Amino acid sequence: MAPGALTILAIETSCDETAVAVVTGGHQVRSNVVATQFDVHAKYGGVVPELASRAHIENLDACTAEALAQAGAGRDDIDAIAVSSRPGLVGCLLIGVTAAKTLALAWNKPLIGVNHIHAHACSAAIELPPDSPPWPAVALVVSGGHTSLFLVRSPLDIELLGCTIDDAAGEAFDKVASILGLGFPGGPVVERTAGPGDPRAHDFPRTMLARDSLDFSFSGLKTAVLYTVHG
Q1: Which of 6, 71, 112, 178 lies at a CB distance of 3.0 to 4.6 Å from 22, suitable for a disulfide?
Q2: What is the 3-state secondary structure (H, E, C) of 22-53?
């Protein structure tokens, strides 16, 4: 079988969503089942790692069964098991990796550990024609736990150009939303609230550190918002 025709069962449990997908040929997403934990964490104003791990345990079997059912696939149709193995919340990653190892052993399939931040950087290519890879490309990954800039020469050749030296952009959104009493998650509600506002009303610090650096910093921005709101 040609590498491009492989069918992969993919498992993701790096943070607060349980996701299982079946993908063929790197571009055909035959199923993509996601169990969100929004209601679990909303009242705490952020993700609670222990609760996230427990929710993954509760959701993973059902997500896997549903992903296989939607794809019309069984163990004999799966060529390999892929799983987010880094980075992320350790307890959450452990749930997914343990499940993936168990399936790989029981089904006698290869196991592929995936850096899920690198996967984010490559994911935009999944909708492009397989014979038209976009590499090399510059990819910016912005999430609750990571803010990273990559040079992607290929999915297996990724260079980190810059990253946050303190807080991630998503964490900054959540903190600002908390300061303003807007709720969780912060990203969508801050975006909606800021939409009709004046971008020049306050002189907040830039998140880029210097002209000769591609790193970011969000801690100063959070502090500036706090002082602006509370004086």
Answers
A1: 71
A2: EEECCCEEEEEEEEECHHHHHHHCCCCHHHHH
In angstroms, the CA 33 to CA 107 distance is: 21
Element (H, E) at 80: strand 80-86
- CA dist list (Å): 41 to 11, 131, 175, 183: 21, 42, 15, 11
Q: What are phi and psi of 20, to 5 degrees?
A: -135, 135
d(CA 116, CA 137): 17
pTM summary value:
0.85
CB-based contact 47:16 (threshold 8 Å): yes
Question: Where in 103-194 does DSSP place strands (E)?
Answer: 111-115, 137-142, 147-154, 157-163
pLDDT in tens, the chain (231 residues): 445 589 999 999 999 999 999 999 988 999 999 999 988 888 887 789 999 999 999 999 999 999 999 999 999 999 999 999 999 999 999 999 999 999 999 999 999 999 999 999 999 888 888 888 889 999 999 987 889 999 999 999 999 999 999 999 998 999 999 999 998 889 999 999 999 999 889 999 888 877 889 999 999 999 999 999 997
